Task: structure prediction
Amino acid sequence: MCHGNICRSPMAEFVMKDVVEKAGVAHCFHIESAATSTEEIGNPVYPPARRKLAEHGLECAGKTARQMTRADYEHYDLLIGMDGANLRNMRRIAGGDPEEKIHLLLDYTARPGDVADPWYTGDFDATWRDVEEGCKALFETIKTQYK
Result:
């Protein structure tokens, strides 16, 4: 999850889908991204984010922004946010986090914290590095916990 669901979270969605596909376990996962705000609902992935995914052979055609719902908390095993503000909004939308499903993506790495927000920095390379590292680390954690 990210604020608008047009940069960071769709990048993470398609990177994570690629990670599980390459591991041969895509059939075990349902991966979807969403926003914590309503500002971009229905809009496609932001063109620079789309280009960054394409540079790495990933396609995101058809993806449009949607907002997280309270039902998402019940539907998904994990809800992964890109920054602290996202986590606060996710907990508000979900009505709390009694099952401890809400986490930051980079908390699965050796350098916990926020994923760089390219909306403000324009640095999609830094965001790519954060997202790729976070998704790979998240997958390793999932593999370890659910063997």
About this structure: The domain at 8-145 is CATH 3.40.50.2300 (Rossmann fold). The chain has one domain: 8-145. The chain has a mean pLDDT of 97.
